[in-house]
Amino acid sequence: MEQQATAPRPPAGTDAPAGHPSTPSTPSALSPLSPLDIEQAEAAIVEHYPRLVRLGYLVLPAGLGRNRRVLTAHALVQRSLPRNRVSLVECAPDAVPGPRGPEARRNDDPGYAYVRLRVLRGALAAGRPRGRLWPPRPGLLPPPLPQVWGLRLFPRSGGADELALDQALGRLSPPARAAFVLRALELPADREVRALLAAAGVADPGAALSEAAAAQVPAGSRDGSLLKSAEFDPCTLQARPTDLMRRRQHLRAAAAALAAAVVCGGLLAVPSGGWGPDGAAAPAYARNAAAEQAVDPGGLTRAPADAWRRADRPGFASWPARGDRTDDEALLRRALSVWARPGSTVQVTATPGTPAGPAPGPPQLLYAGAVDSAVVVLLYDGLRVVRYAEPRNGDATAAALDFARTDAADADAATAVVLGRTDGNVRYLTAPWVASTAVRDLLDPAGAAQSLHRSADGVTDPTAGPAAAGDCRSWPVLQLDGRLATDLGELVPARLTGGAPASGPTTGDTDAGAADRAVWAHTVCLLPSLRSQGVRAVNAWRFARQPLPGGAGVAEWLCTRTETWRGAGGRAVAGFLTPGGRPGAQAAVVARAEDSPACGPRQPHVLAGALWKSPGGNWYALAAGSPDVVSITATGGVHGTGAGPVLALPAGQGAVARLAGRTRDGKRVAALK
Known about the structure:
By secondary structure, the chain is of the alpha+beta class. It contains 14 helices and 29 strands.
């Protein structure tokens, strides 16, 4: 049984127990051992980049020279981004104190604390004694990034006080220099500086603090005012040329070495059959008649422009070839070759259950043309739609290959294909039988649809796609005539339908009308969890209405059913919507079934329950089934039987009941859990 939002919930980051509704919760404070996401560290670097670079520049040894110190400081900050999630135990929790003043937000930011520690470690490592070959000290060699050729960069020169402070810092040991800088710019208390130095690997933080305190520095140095001057700002730089004569000699020697390497490499790399126009494709590994036909542009099949009008079942096979590059044999050959033999530089993606192998024979051409900053080729082999994309600037080695399974696609499922995504916007290629295209917001079911312009080839203008997971303030969907479809991060948008499923070989789902859109407005925020899952269609319908005890109104029970292209992995989710909620309020998830035919055409009935607290403070066990359920029985923590598709029984807080139902024809119905 399910509890409403007032019932205890599981801790954040864990799955809710079976039967608890999924409701938003307030984020808790991050503990010292919580995992740190890469996005948090990246946000801290972007926000505090000048401050972090200044810290690295000041701690690096002066012997590197100002140009090398500038580049190394930038490299330390840019390399401080973690490769994956890390535990905040690495962030020196003692060095992340409670609120102290106007800078508490930055110092309490775990992402900032982590990257600051990484920068400090790297800068201190640059000052360790010579003699160790590995790992190399930062600054010993030029950093791989950033690189500046032909120029020397250094901060603007300051006055006599800045020069004296720079010399004084150069005479301190690296730990003492770090202690002085941290004390002046970052942390006001010696205890915090000591903790951060210890986390950075300093053997004796106390001695470092004592040495820093005894340093002879100009007035205004210890409060950070001099350290914040342009003399120590590695982000405000001056440029001067390097040694021009020596550079000319080095360039001549490098050019001669490069020419020799190119000649030798070319002799070794040329295959026996010579070079071919296959772009980013890997070398051919076999001579096979079917394989050679699959990469021959002349063998591509093309449907006539009116084939869809004569087809028994319109689908992708009846799409004509469209686009302004359908006769570009070089482009088509590259697309076919990369599909048959994708090289190591090709980015290949495939939806779950979609084979990414070569075509069994000559595929069908659906589209070839320029789309924004890319050139796109769409192909179809009867099982899959394949999108090949390469940059429009002609770099055929930076190609991408996407596979989507589309077998048995009919006129309702083969309505559109994603041509490209740019800056959150999506372009679609629509089916030739689609007469009108529009965009509407599912969270505003009463709002009018906005017309979406298409070119003569059926390519839509860019339109906003659904926001990333976690942002459900709006959900734009594509309206194709009367059909609704949504982009879930795949080549083929998922179809959205409404209505109760019918048993038998055909479904009762229909294109979502006004009443169905009202149901979708309360369930649409489930869609982000379906991204990149190979979803073919999603159906949402209200399977029951239940008067609540005590005259508290009428609750609605909703079911959302997901179907996939691969035929497995279907999902059913039951939602409970109490009366009086705000417009667009999302139904609480009270039960779900994974890889189950429940709530679909094979099993068109559903039964679910929830534990509900009335406005008067009384708890009730509620249950509801689809209209074909004629009786419901509760056992376990609550006992009772009721005739009809709904049941309400008094219950204790936290009670868990087992539900079972019967249909008109005597079939037993198990409740979703």
